[in-house]
Every structure is written in structure tokens, then in C-alpha cells.
């Protein structure tokens, strides 16, 4: 089975479309949190997640949108409020039933899905912070949150961070994803381009603060 592993779509519909167009074939999609936040397409992206039966958990941005008293100082509050106002009832219900973390079995391969780290959903584990703390009692750990892609094997546990589909932060403005083949064990990290200008123009037409464009065009 080919598993498309993605994270941090951040309400970026053009980037989500682009990643799906870029992947030659896949059987299943898993996403390690932050469906929402920053981007101007919250409902479109949630609708697409439902259609595609994406296996997803929540990230800190999703929880900020769902919570009336969130405490994530690094998240711009105007974007949280705007996203909350936009979200339809059925899309909010979809997000509310998503877990904080999840264990799944795919073709006898066990996968643990977390947003930050196995210890803390809000912890940032950057490439320099990789340690045996990431080893879980499963074949694979998938995490996100930093928007930095990682593929590393530690003590027999394959640790994967696919980076971000919607808002890369590692200096490459293209989105990233991982393709994992359960039969061959092959792991591939790929980058894809998408029309960033469409996203920044949509932000300028919406009530999101216009400086939010900097999250997408790197300026
Ligand atoms: Mn994120």
C-alpha cells in the first residue's frame, strides 16, 4: 500500500490540490495536524479532507480555532478569530471529533501519529533536536508542527516529519510530503510547487490581516 504522509496544510487549498496532483498514486492519506490556521481556505480544506477520508489528528492551530480560551502566544489571534467565524457547523463538528494523537495499523506496519512529539503535542522538534525521545513502541512515528521535513531511523523506529504542505518554513517555499510504500519499505521525500500568488491574492480579498501573505510568499 502506498501511504501519502502530509502535515500542516494550514487552510491552503491550492497547495493541497497541488500535492494530490504531484503524487503519482496513493492508497491512503495521513496528516499529522494543523488543517487550519494562516490560510484563507478553511472550509474548502476541511471538505476535501472529508472527501478524501484523510486520517488526521488536530494540531495546535486547529485546537486554537475550536477553543474559546486558547493559549498559544505564537498564533496571530486575528487569524484564529477569522477562521472560527468562517467555519461551518458541520466542518467544526468534523474537527471536534479528531483525536490529539492516533495509532494505526497499515499492512502490519504500526504507525503513531502525533503533532509535536510523543510527549507533548505542542513541542517543536527541529532537525537539531532529534533524539531517542522520538522513539515510540511502533514501527513508525509521524509528527509535524515544525514544518521541517525529516526522515531518520532511530533504534529501529522510523521517524518521519513530512514538513508542511501549506506553509513550509525551511527556506524552500515549495510544499513537501512523504510517500511510504508498506510493501517495499521505500520512503521518499518530495517537494512540489503551487500557485502562491492565488493564495496571497485570496488573503488580500478576505478580512485576514494583509500581512498574513508573508506566511505564504516568504517576503
Ligand atoms: Mn503548523
UniProtKB/TrEMBL annotation:
Alphabetical UniProt keywords: Metal-binding
Domain Calcineurin-like phosphoesterase: 1-184
Coiled-coil ranges per UniProt: none
Record field: transmembrane: none
Gene3D superfamilies: 3.60.21.10
Required cofactor(s): a divalent metal cation
SUPFAM superfamilies: Metallo-dependent phosphatases
Name of the protein in question: Phosphoesterase
Record-stated family: Belongs to the metallophosphoesterase superfamily. YfcE family.
Catalytic EC class: hydrolase
A Pfam family hit: Metallophos_2
Keyword Metal-binding assigned: yes
Its EC number(s): 3.1.4.-
Native organism: Halobellus litoreus
GO function term, MF aspect, one: metal ion binding
NCBIfam families for this protein: yfcE
